[in-house]
């Protein structure tokens, strides 16, 4: 059995995002580490259902969800495992892989969000485009002065730029035959050159973070930028900084999971967006999101089932 662990990005935070992990003793240290960064217990903050989607709060909460979920399943794993994270999930993956401890991941998540907010001006955002080929989309991006932010699949992308440019891009994409082309409820043009200053600032912060030697049982870490295995920490940290302002190739990450022979895929974090993409990209694997389970025992049994 090879388990691919996928760590969610922002966008799907919800009041019950800690339902499975909130009372687990294994996850207590993760929640406690987040409290001073958020000014409240993350479990209480999520339950209030207000402010979940602010950039700083959202990035920290997504990392809390990933690390809390990992703490619950880690002890019961047998066999090979790999881990990859989507956007902010890429940072959480360094915690799951044993490279950073939980307090370091959460502190860096808050600092990453602050750097992105400082670099991002008003009037920017992202849009989701599905149903067009890359060549067609590249022409639209150039014509509307936007940027490719994420490649999710051969015909599924996220683009970033000014709102005033994204709206006509979406209209033209639909006219060209796109199945979906909509601005997203995001005010930060993540993974585009517009955030180059944030990458530089985050790179300096990563350089000062304490790295750990991962245990032999730790999952193999894949870069969320391009799906390549991280063997040299310095190269991996550079990619972790660059992905703030460069296109993410999540489709390559899913391809890498297939190449590693993933038989099971588990999304840790709020929502099931990555699980849905993995089902399409890895039809031979058994795929689930932690959000779909009612108990820690249930997810452990699912992982152990051949």
UniProtKB/TrEMBL annotation:
Keyword Acyltransferase: yes
EC numbers on record: 2.3.1.39
Keyword Flavoprotein carried by entry: no
Keywords for the protein's UniProt record, in alphabetical order: Acyltransferase, Transferase
GO MF terms held by the record: [acyl-carrier-protein] S-malonyltransferase activity
The protein's enzyme class: transferase
Malonyl-CoA:ACP transacylase (MAT) domain mapped to chain residues: 6-297
Listed PANTHER family: BLL0263 PROTEIN, MALONYL-COA-ACYL CARRIER PROTEIN TRANSACYLASE, MITOCHONDRIAL
Protein name: [acyl-carrier-protein] S-malonyltransferase
Organism: Methylobacterium aerolatum
